[in-house]
Amino acid sequence: MSRITPTSQLLRIFRCTHLILQVISGLIQSLAYPYFSQSTQRRMMKKWANGLLETLNIKLHCRGKIPTPEDQRVMFAANHISWLDVCILMAACPTRFVAKAEIRSWPVLGFLSKNAGTLFIERAKRSDTLRINKNISEAMSKGDRVTVFPEGTTCDGTILNHFHASLLQSALTADTQLYPVAICYRNVDGKISREAAYIDSSLAISLQKILSQPQIDVELTFIDPIDTIGKNRRELARLSEHAIADTLSITVAHREPEKFSGRPAE
What we know:
This protein is α/β, with parallel strands linked by helices. It has helices at 6-32, 38-55, 84-92, 109-115, 128-141, 169-173, 203-211, 233-248; strands at residues 58-64, 74-78, 96-100, 119-121, 146-148, 159-161, 177-187, 216-222, 251-253.
């Protein structure tokens, strides 16, 4: 076990202090955020998220074609590794997110998420899927981009969990461009960063692990959008899942065979 040097300890204290100031800044900005125009909101979100990544010494590397502000009805389907995924996507291409309802009650993050327009879903209620899909469609019809994490949980980045199709119904309803997005965190040695993963941990412990790293590099790949015409939501889930797995060169856990009917799901 390596010993923490006084310099590295001081660096952690400095970064923690900077992080607290960045979060306070976000809380203050979030109070006014809902009242600004969409373009101003996107600039605020992008600037704040990049500031947070800089504080945590996370270097963002984007690949692929990022949708422009002129692109309408855009939906992202991304793999899910960490709470950092939200900040990464906000820094690259500001978007609204779909998150589990429990996050709404989290200290600080819940307040920030709510004011930033996050769409919360009650996962324990199957009937809530219909409501959230309607909300997603309405958001995209107004020009908002929306991100879903079809795995429904986080993993450590070495595998990809089976994609659930329920929230992709809105991609069909709103006739969107569906972009699979691949996220990969690496430490300075080039290996997958398990410290960035948020699995069976508290936010405080997660932050400690992230701050313990001198630097984390994140590769964010925007894969070519999937044509949704003539497909059903399960096909969209499998196509997104395979595109991300192939980009990251990882396997899909619990792969389930699907019948491609060629007909939109009802």
